[in-house]
Amino acid sequence: MTTDKQSANNPVFERRESEARSYCRGFPTTFAKAQGSIMTATDGTEYIDFLAGCSSLNYGHNDADMKAALVEHITNDGIAHGLDMYTEEKAKWLEAYENIVLKPRGMDDYKVMMTGPTGTNAVEAAMKLARKITGRRNIISFTNGFHGMTMGSLSLTGNAGKRGGAGTPLGGVTHMPYEGAMGEGVDTLAFIETMLDNGSSGVDAPAAFIFEPVQGEGGLNAASKEWMEGIAKLAKKHGALLIVDDIQAGIGRTGKYFGFEGMDIEPDLITQAKSLSGFGLPFACLLIKREYDVWKPAEHNGTFRGNTHAFVTGRVALEKFWADKDAMEASTAEKAEILEKGLGKLADLMPGAYLKGRGFMRGVDVGSGELAGDICARAFEKGLIIETSGADDEVVKVLAALNIPNDVLQKGLDIVVDAAREVLNENHKYAAE
Ligand SMILES: Cc1ncc(COP(=O)(O)O)c(C=O)c1O
């Protein structure tokens, strides 16, 4: 995309780093420091961060309390890597997770599996476990869903470009329409039920259904309570497990700790990653309903399962932000209102543009990937890091930290609105027809 600017910055990236690099192409500068919701480039330019490590930094950059706990742990020669051996820090994190996340939500019945450190590995574990439990192969995933880039999770992912990278057929999955995917007024639940009830539909009995409560990469499509509950019922009816991929929508992003919280569903398996460490450190896990924890020891092994440094920061994050869940939810709700108003102004600039998402996971479908990309590029020039999402990258998407100060949030929103206004004024190609 912007290779000239990149090489002007530091030629080593273009010279040495693989063409697979991605985010750096949209934000062509070299970053040196970050604090809270501000990232600072080597040249001293400050940027408001509306990307937050793609929701891996839900509490902003370098939270002082997490940083202090981590520095103390390292300084005291605390364990840095312990495979999945018992460590003091793992015990402390598990206890905090139990007391702050699981028990207050009536979820005492879940066990925590330490998977490999990225979201995709938690998804792979969920797929393997569902297949092992049911003895079935087929997994139902949804249009526009994104679940990761390793072979199993990629087979669940909808995006053709990403699937194309596999270089081999991806099987064992039936893709069904997510809510709204067949146009307004089409009941996708009824469609899926018809397909599954018809023994001649060609859809094999499923081992599991997997969905995102809000589709993060797929364009911020937010499923309704009714739809999620309908899928849960269908899973039960057909003897399939219900997997909620909460990797992007979870950990406060939609306003509550879990993206499905408040819905009358009890997923059998829940994937978590991204902001689990609270500090941007790699850490993922799979929550498993106790009755389904039928793994044999080491059956889903890995060198990096449970990241001790992430246990330290993740525990502090839970204690600091979630011990008082009502305060956290109220704060996010307040910021979500500011976000909605700001994005409403953005949508108002373009006929047909509309708001998407839920809670603090919102964006605007501006109708074309080119326009959304131009808006984000101009916003970056004005000091804002903001990305697109959607099948054609047509959604300008905000993933700001949950604790971004209100004035910084407002400033970022003003920048994106100004950026859009300028892009629209300067480009005849975007003139309303
Ligand atoms: C919903 C969802 N699932 C899985 C993943 C994969 O996580 P990771 O990139 O850590 O492998 C992502 C990443 O964006 C995601 O949004």
Automatic annotation (TrEMBL):
- UniProt entry tagged with the keyword Transferase: yes
- MF GO annotations: diaminobutyrate-2-oxoglutarate transaminase activity; diaminobutyrate-pyruvate transaminase activity; pyridoxal phosphate binding
What EC number(s) does its UniProt record assign? 2.6.1.76
The protein's required cofactors: pyridoxal 5'-phosphate
| The keyword Transferase is annotated on this UniProt entry | yes
Keywords of this entry: Aminotransferase, Pyridoxal phosphate, Transferase
**Family according to the record:** Belongs to the class-III pyridoxal-phosphate-dependent aminotransferase family.
Looking up PANTHER family in the UniProt record yields: DIAMINOBUTYRATE--2-OXOGLUTARATE AMINOTRANSFERASE, DIAMINOBUTYRATE--2-OXOGLUTARATE TRANSAMINASE
Q: What is this protein called?
A: Diaminobutyrate--2-oxoglutarate transaminase
